[in-house]
Structures are given as structure tokens and as C-alpha cells.
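Morning!

As promised:
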Amino acid sequence: MDAIDFSLVNWSRGQFALTALYHWIFVPLTLGITFIIAIMETIYVRTGDEEWKKATKFWMILFGINFAIGVATGLILEFEFGTNWSNYSWFVGDIFGAPLAIEGIMAFFLESTFIAIMFFGWNKVSKKVHLASSWLVAIGASLSALWILVANAWMQSPVGMQFNPDTARNEMVKFWDVLFSPVAVNKFLHTISSGYVLASIFVIGVSAWFLLQKRNILFARRSILVAAIFGFVSSIQIIATGDGSARQVAKIQPMKLAAMEGLYKGYEGVGLVAIGVLSQPEENRGNEGNKDFYFRIEIPKFLSYMANGSWNAFVPGIKDLIDGNSERGIISAAEKMERGKYARNVLSELKKAKERGDMETYEDLTLRFSDETFINEYFRYFGYGFVDDPARLIPNVPLSFYSFHLMVGLGFYFLLFFILAIFYAYKGSLERRKWFQRLALLTIPLAYLATMLGWIVAEMGRQPWVIQDLMPTFSAVTRLDSTTVQITFWLFVIIFTALLIAEVKIMTKQIKIGPKEGGN
Amino acid sequence: MFENLSHLALQQYWWVIISLLASFLVFLMFVQGGQTLIYTLGKTSIEKTMLVNALGRKWEFTFTTLVTFGGAFFASFPLFYATSFGGAYWVWMAILFCFIIQAIAYEYRSKPNNFLGQKTYDIFLFINGALGTILIGTAVGTFFNGAMFSVNEMNLSQWETSARGLEAVLNWHNVALGLTVFFLARISGILYFIRNVDDDNILPRARKHLLYNTIPFLVVFLAFLTGLLLKDGFAYHPETGLVSMEPFKYLHNLLSMPLVMLFLISGTLLVLFALYRGLFTTATQSFYYAGAGTVMVVFSLFLIAGFNHTCYYPSVFDLQSSLHIENSSSSHYTLTVMSYVSLLVPFVLAYIIYAWSAINKKKINASDMENEPHVY
């Protein structure tokens, strides 16, 4: 195996994480607020009430400011697969490239074309065409999310493909399996719902500020009502899909689940940690489960149920997954590494045979890559063949654990928050509840925090894999000088931060200006 | 339908689509060209605002086409994506930085409390317009002149210079293409302003600068085209895949594909016709002639780069590592799936044309800038 420059790997990961997290500051708001705008405009078109038009246009201004910077960061993400992850781009480009291209053709054009009508078409097209454009922008934004999440889900759960030893890459063989894999469907619904929740909280929080300022009261009340209902429905969907996610992670990425729960040694009837403080670094994986926490409150047996649908099911811990557990049929990391190395070796021998013109050996070895036994016993561990130390197979446990638990806690808090908002809106007492108005403002940053934590769980929890079990992150990287990546990393930090500051300043100013009469 | 096509036919189909996307991208770069002229053609604040707003209603089409071009290249020819983007790191990063600053510039430039000031956002637009076009053109120049990379038996690529793609500027032919794209974008931008801005002061200035940009455009375009037709090209043997140098390869390609030659000649004539109308008549509708001509010329250049057993991304470090449509594409299955998706393109084009015409029904004038609900 080529020597790996881990400084390069870390800077490349840092750069991608930086871009992704900055991108994700803006995308969820776009996903949700476009629907809220479309709903408000629908009410305006149906009732003719100018106050709804005013609200529609106000939220549209904020959407426009947010959208521009989301576009800028999104462009970088797409091209970084090539610039910084070139080995990855070849190894799975046959599958991964397709969703990105479909996203461009199917979603980006829809979004960008009808945004032009949304912003510039008020006096140029009919009310109904304008309304249709607003809906198409909302649908386009979520469609765009669909394709990129399908791509991401495939990295977590690679399906619908076959390895081609001739080209040394994975090739798609079942498109519908890729598109409708349970992980993809669940990830899409969970992630877009998180965007809808964030946007709803944003709208409620900003509207609450108007109530605190005792201005634009009708606008604020109506905005809160629409956003609270939309947010409530989305919250229910988040919780339902979150439950589905846990089951999938348990099956496909058991190490991620163990890290998310801080579970070092598996057992039957494992409880779900509701609140806990980890007591030791991840390197010490030998301790019994109940010694890994300074303090914790558990929901008894719930993790077993979440993971397997049975209260007494066995859930493997980090130690089981690394050292193996013969009783439970779990093979050790060392064994997987051996099998992975063997699969890599077969591929290498095949290439050598082809080069020296030994076609008999070449054809014999080629056949092995379509042999079910070889695929299931060896090739499925291909990525382990790049790993030199089992410790590399353990993700960052504290980061995964705290991110996961904080995200879940916030998710339930948001549900409660929306129920309260609907209740006060129904009672007509929103203006009197100063504490709720302040709470709503404070909840905005929490919504951003929760959605970021979701990505941290998903992406940090699956390390070291860029493609689960098939390709570790450090094999996927473009062989660059790490100083080169450091330079671009810091350039991105400077430019993204400057743009973020600009965005926040412009947005707060626009909020202070508030909605205008006639909507202009 | 598509599943019955051979792998080669699908590879050719996708090279046509890539070529079409590239040609529309260059046409839509009138936005970039126009951005470099805001301070040249606009002298007062309202004039600059009109010019920015005329372009601001279109910038997302260019941006989206660029993103789709990248995605389509990744899906159809992933080895190019892996080799070029990872290899020519600095070139692609520079291009990306040029486009990040464009995406926010329109929306933020005139908003109160915008942190960096309007002038900074206008400089962003200028940088995007000038550097973005020159760099993309220069990078595409390597399709004809080659780059310094190698590809191993596992199809993993390695860049062989520390300049990471910047060495492309040392080849005059690459730079000539970069400058051609730059001046063509400016010409298209001016013709777009003539077509879409209703202002008595801007119009004469635009016509004057059309002349100033036409002369250098013709010089660099002719230099590039002559160089291309006279140069040796990178040919591969259809059966063995062996790559070799062939004298006058691109000229041969044109001669063996008469339809492509017709496209190149007709496209060039259309651009020249648009320039003639813009320079010597009072016509205001030349923009679309120039646009159609641009699409035809760029389309034909991409076809001679990738068709007729030509390596579209040659390696001058190791000839046998050169990429052509047969050794760098996605599998038959993936290209088939993508081909079905490509059937959506006419539908996409239809709604783009609808939206474009709905927004551009009438020319922009100074009073619009006061009455429009959304002004950049």
C-alpha cells in the first residue's frame, strides 16, 4: 500500500467538512422557507388579502439573501469530489456521478429558472403563473436535496452495484436500488424535514421579534401560525424517520450505532441513554458497558428495541466489532482486514496477469469477482484491506455520542415548541406571551445547531469509511501536497466567513426594515 | 431504447451532450463578459444599476449550466473528472473562487449594511467576468494541447507537475483560447446590452466598445483556429487503443466530419454577421445571432476534440495515459440510465425559454429601476 500522508487526509477532510457545514448553514432554510412562502402566496391568491402578499414578499427577500450564498457553497462541494477526492471519483464515479448530474438537469434548472419569475415576475406574469413558480422553486429545492441525499445514502449503504476488475471500479447495475434504497428514502425524508423544521423556527423566531417590538402584529401572528403548523407536521416526520434511521444504522453501520450510544461492550436488552456523560477516551475499548459513563439515565432495553425491534436483542459494542464475538457470529476486524487484503491481492494479480499476457490466469481471476462466495466472504471487506490498524476503524466516540444525544433532545424540544406556538396562536395570546417570544428568538440558533449535529453524527460516525466497508477516507483522497490543501482551506475559511458575516448583516437589516406596504 | 445501443454509441451520445452543455455555457458567458463592462459602459449610478440588473436576471442560468456541466461530466466520463479536477488543482480552484464571489455579488451589492460595500461586490463581478472566462478557456485549451498526468493500471491518476495545472498558461495556444472566450463573452455581453437596455447614453458607448472588443477577438480567435488546424493531434487506434501523434489531426477531423465543419463555418459566419450588424447598422437584435453562432462553433470544437478517434484529454507526460471517450466513460448501464434522464432536456429548455421571454418582454430602462420590486 502507498504511504499515506495523514496530514493531507486531515486537511482534505477539514476542507470538505468546512464547505459542507457552511453550505448546510444556508440550505435548510432554503428547503423550508420556500414552502412557507408558497403556502402564504397560495393564501394570498385565494383570498386576495394584500397582507398575505406583504408577508410572502418579506420572506422572499430573506430567502433570496440566503439562497445566493447557498448556491456559492454548493458549487464548491460538487467540484471538491474531483479536486480533493479523485480516487473516490473514479472508484465509484459510475454510480455517484449520476445523481449529481440528475440533480443539475432535474432540480437546479427548475429552481433557478423559476426563481427568476418569483423575484422579477410579479408584474410580468399572471398571479397563478407566479404562484406556480413559487411552488416549483420549493419543489426544485427539495428535489435537489433528494439527489444529493441519494448519493450520500449510497456512500453509507452501497447497493445496486458490482465491482468491475477490468476498470477497477464499482459500476451501477440497479438504478432503482440506488434511488429507492431504504437508507436513501429515510435519509431524504429525515433531512428535508430538518430543513422544514429549521425554517419554521426561523420564521417563528423572526416573527416573535416583531411581536416583541410591537410592530407588524398581524403579519407576525399569521407567519407564526403558518410556520408552527408546517413545523409541527415536519417534526413528527423527523421523529418517525429518525426511528427508521436507527434501525438502518444498527443493521448497516453497527460501529456508528455503538459510537452514537457510547456502547463499548454489547449485551442483550441494551438501554437507550437519555442523558449521559462519558467517562473515558475512545481508545480504551475494553471496559464493560456500564463503566463507560460518569453518569447516565437510561430508558431500559430501548436501544435493543430501536435497533432490532426486540426488547432483548443483542446490540454489539465497539469491542465486539473490533475483537469479534464468535458467539454472536461477529468476525474480528483483524480477520476482515485479512480478507480485504486478500481481495486486493486478487485484483493486483489479475492486473499483473493481464500485463504479462497470461490470459488464462486473468480470466480465471476475473471470474472470481462475479462469484457470490468471493464477493460475500472477501470482496465485501475490500476496504479493510487498506487499513493497517484496527483502532482506525473506531470513529470519534465522544463527538458521535454528544452530537447524537443533543440532536435528539433538541428534536423533541422543537416538537414541544411548535405545539406551544400553535396553542398560543389558537388562543390568540401570542402577543401577551413575552417569555415565549424571547424563547422563540433563542430557539433559532438551536435549530441550526441541531441540524449541524445531525450531519456530524452521520459523517463522523461512519469514519473511517467514505464508502462503507469498501473504501476508507484515506484511500479516496487526491494525492496533493498537504500545504496546497492548507492554503485553499484557509482561503475558504476567509471567504466563507466574510460572506457569512455579510449575509447575517444584510438579513438582520432587512428584518429591521420589515415588511413593506404593498409588498415592495 | 438506449439499452440497445452499443457502449460506443452511448459514449458518443454523451460526448454530444457534454459538447452541447459546453457550448451553451460559453454562450451564457455573455453574463461574465457584461460584468467586465459595467464601469466601462455605465458612467452614472443609475446606468450601472441598469446594466447589473440586465445581467442579474440571467446569471443563474450560466451558473446552473456550469454546475450541470460538471455533474454531467462526472456521470458520463468520471475518469476525466478524477484526473483533471484532482490534478489541475490550482486551475479549477481558481475557477471555483471566481464563481463563489459571483453568486452573492448580485444579491448583496445594493443591499443596505452589506459589510463589504457595493464597490467590492462590483469588483467581484469584474473578477468573475475576466478571470473566470480566461481560466475556463485556457483549461479547455488543454483538450487540444495536453496536460501533464499519468494514469496507472487501477485507473488512478497522478499529476506530474507541482504547478498543478497552472503550467497550461505557458502554452500560447491555451492562452489564445482563454482570450478568445474572454473577448467573445464581452462581445456577447455588449450585444445583450444593446438588445435589452433602453438608454440613449449606454447604446452609443456599447457600439463603440463592440468595435474595441471585436478587433482583439478576431486576432486571438484566428490565431487559435489556425494553430488548431495546423497542429499535430492525439489519435488513438480504435482496436488497440494505442495513442499516437497524427499530423493535422484536427484538420483531418473536420474533413472527415463535414457536418461538423459546416457547423464551425456557419457558426463563425453567424458571429461575424452579428458583429457586422452591431457595428455598422442600428439593429438591436444581433445578440441571438451571436449566441447561435457561439453555440455552433463551440459545439464543433468539442466534437473535433472527442470524435474520430481523438483523445479529448491528452497526456503529454505519458501518451498512453491520454483520455478518450472510450477509456474514460461510465459503464453501459450508467450511460443508459443517464440517457433516459437526458430526455428531460427538451422539457427543461422549454421552460427556460418561457421564463427567459417572460422576464425579457421589454427592455430595462431607468424608471424600471425605481419601480421594480426587486432590484440588484
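Chain B touches chain A through 73 residues (CB under 8 Å).

Hope this helps with the figure draft.
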